[in-house]
Structure to design on (246 residues):
């Protein structure tokens, strides 16, 4: 009788532990599952905006590169690369200090940054959506969603249903990033998923490790309760039957 009482107390204690663990991590587990559904249901290519931009070829096909030998400053650069800069041929050069510049292939002079008007034209020429340009701005400070970019950036906004933004480097005239409300929706659930509420990059932070550890304990206690309530009584019944038959 005492043995039965001890087992009953142990079962109730385990059930209380399982209950409180569930209380601690229940909301986060729900967010993990919801985020998993969102991230698996929305194709990552759509999130990145690849369906909204038509990339330029690497170099204009009709351009000539014969002027390369006329540039007298070739030895100043660590590397040179022909690029398509908004439909015209340009030289992308890398200095021995690992800094990039963009040169006129005819003169070797550094090209000026593109203007707001040119940024609008570049964005319109590569945009494949149905919206129109609603705003163009040279950014003094980059928003969090493109905090990984460097240099002077122009933002071209479109009035489509997902509020698409093109972020264009003013030196290379290249569309570096495409952001939209679809990306922001996805990024919000990514933030909740990895529990990095500031930078949304570190998925090894102490919050997610702690929540995952408690979730593991919750799952383990649940499996133990399942064994104690379903499997162990059946196993005891089966053993009694074997003993009675023998």
């Amino acid at each position: 009788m005492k043995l039965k009482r001890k087992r009953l107390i142990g079962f109730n204690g385990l059930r209380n532990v399982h209950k409180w663990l569930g209380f601690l991590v229940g909301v986060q587990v729900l967010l993990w599952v919801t985020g998993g559904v969102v991230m698996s249901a929305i194709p990552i290519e759509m999130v990145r905006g690849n369906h909204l931009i038509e990339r330029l070829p690497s170099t204009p096909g009709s351009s000539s590169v014969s002027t390369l030998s006329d540039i007298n400053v070739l030895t100043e650069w660590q590397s040179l690369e022909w690029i398509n800069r908004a439909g015209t041929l340009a030289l992308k050069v890398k200095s021995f200090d690992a800094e990039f510049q963009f040169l006129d292939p005819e003169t070797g002079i550094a090209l000026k940054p593109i203007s707001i008007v040119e940024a609008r034209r570049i964005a319109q020429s590569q945009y494949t959506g149905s919206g129109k340009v609603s705003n163009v701005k040279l950014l003094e400070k980059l928003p969090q969603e493109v905090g990984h970019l460097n240099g002077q950036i122009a933002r071209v906004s479109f009035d489509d249903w997902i509020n698409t933004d093109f972020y264009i480097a003013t030196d290379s005239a290249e569309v570096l990033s495409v952001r939209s409300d679809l990306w922001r929706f996805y990024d919000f659930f990514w933030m909740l998923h990895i529990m990095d509420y500031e930078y949304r990059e570190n998925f090894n932070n102490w919050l997610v490790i702690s929540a995952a550890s408690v979730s593991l304990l919750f799952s383990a206690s649940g499996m133990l309760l399942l064994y104690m309530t379903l499997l162990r009584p059946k196993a005891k019944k089966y053993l009694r039957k074997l003993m009675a038959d023998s």
Summary: The mean pLDDT is 83.
